[in-house]
Amino acid sequence: RTLRELEEIGRRTRLLESTERGFRFAHPILADVFCKSLPESVRRHAHVRLAHIIERDDPGNIQSLAHHLFEAGLYDRALPALITSSRSSIAAFAYREARVFLSKCEQSSDALGTNMTNALRLDVLMLQGEVDYRLGEWQRSLEGCRQALILAGKDDEAAGRAFLQIAQVHRRQGVWEEAVTDYRRALDHFTRCGLDALTAKCQIGL
Q1: Using CA atoms, how far apart are residues 22 and 10, in angstroms rounded to an integer?
Q2: Can you tell me whether residue 155 is helix, strand or coil?
Q3: Torsion of CA 89, 90, 94, 96, to 10 degrees
Q4: Is the pTM of the predicted complex or chain greater than 0.85?
């Protein structure tokens, strides 16, 4: 009965269309409008169900999974998926898309509060620093990387990555002496933990 009614609605209104897997809205905007019209509890439950289906049937679809986990309010599970999605977007040079994921990371972090691990917080800060750098927002990138540097503590790799990003910003700004100092600091950290590719990147920068 439901399938017949959906078919009739689709034929009459052209808001739905039939596919091999069932029915879908004819346009993503229609789906968005319908979703926002639902009561919050119903909407969250629908996102939970969709997240479970994606995990079961399409686990490689991390971006969709991240979206539904976030909208379901499952922030502890959403955050790692959002970070992975941000990295994928950066690798594809889709920096504005990465920023959307990182904005959701920030909201998830705020919701989790003290329950969020330092490692995840550090990941988010470093990714934000890279995206800001790529989009030419250098001062914002510097501020984020300096926060990451404080959070990194004695973690050589994390501190090295923060110094490397800071060095790249200073180089872009033409602040040569500071850039050289930051490259050398990054080089020291990477040498200590034996990361040859990043050591080479610092030497090229110098």
Answers
A1: 12
A2: coil
A3: 100
A4: no
Q: 22: helix, coil or strand?
A: strand
Q: CA 57, CA 167: separation in Å to the nearest integer?
A: 43
Q: CA of 205: how far to CAs of 119, 141, 170, 171, 199, in Å? A: 27, 18, 11, 9, 10
Task: Give the list of residues 6+ apart from residue 44 with CB closer than 8 angstroms, or none.
Answer: 71, 72, 73
Taking each helix axis as running N to C, give the angle between helix 156-173 and helix 176-193, from 0 to 180 degrees, rounded to the nearest 10. Answer: 160
Residue-wise pLDDT for 64-77, tens only, equals 999 999 999 999 99
Query: How far is the C-alpha of 128 from the C-alpha of 114, rounded, in Å?
Result: 20
Tokens of 47: 């996102």
Helix axes 62-71, 95-112, angle to 10 degrees: 40
Token readout for 87 is: 């990295």
Instruction: Mark out the alpha helices in 58-153 (DSSP H runs).
Output: 62-71, 75-91, 95-112, 118-134, 138-152
- Residues 162 and 156: their CA atoms lie apart, in Å, by 10
Query: What pLDDT, in 10s, does the model give residues 30-62?
Result: 888 888 888 999 999 999 999 999 999 999 999
Give tens-digit pLDDT for 112-165: 988 888 889 999 999 999 999 999 999 999 999 999 999 998 999 999 999 999
